[in-house]
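Pipeline run #58 for the internal structure catalog. This entry was flagged by the ingest filter as a single-chain record with no existing model, so it goes straight to prediction. Upstream metadata was stripped on purpose; only the residue string is passed forward. Reviewer on rotation: M.T. Logging verbosity set to normal.
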Amino acid sequence: MPLSMYEASIPVLTRMLGNLSNLLKKGEANAQARGIDPTVFIESRLAPDMYPLARQVQIASDMAKGCAARLAGVEVPSWADTETSFEELQARISKTLDFIKGIDAARLEGSESRTVVLKMRSGDMSFSGQDYLLSFALPNFYFHITAAYAILRHNGVDVGKMDFLGGV
C-alpha cells in the first residue's frame, strides 16, 4: 500500500511537536537547575538576525497547523504569537497537537493533487499538495525545530540527537 498524505504528514508533525515539547522541558529544567532566569533561554537566538527560541516554537506550530489545515482543506487557525514563557510555549504546542490530531485521515485523501496557494509578501506561491508538504511545509517545520534545538544546545542544555529524534 502506498504511503498516504495523512501518514506522511499528521504522524510526522505530531511526533516532532512532542519531541519539541520534550526539548523545552529539558530547557526549563536546565534553567531551574542552573539558577538562570528562563527568559534568557526564551529570548536567546543563535545569531542577531535569527529569531529567538519563542519565535522558533511559534513558527514550528504555525507550520504544523497550516500544513494540516491546508492539506485537509480547512481554515488555518490564527493564533496570536504572545508566548513568553516555557509554560506558554508548552500550551501552544498542546493546542497545535489538539488541532492536528483532530483532523480525520479521510480529509487528506486526494490532497496530493489539491492546489495549495500561499499568500506571501513577494507574491502568491502555488503548489500541488504533495509538493507543498514535501518541498515547503516539512522542510520549514524541521528548520524551526532544529533552530529551537540548537538554541537550547548553544545555551548549555544537555540535549542530543536522540532528544531531537525522540524514541525511534
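catalog note: The CA atoms of residues 44 and 131 lie 33 Å apart.
catalog note: The beta strands are 115-120, 123-128.
status: ready for reviewer M.T.
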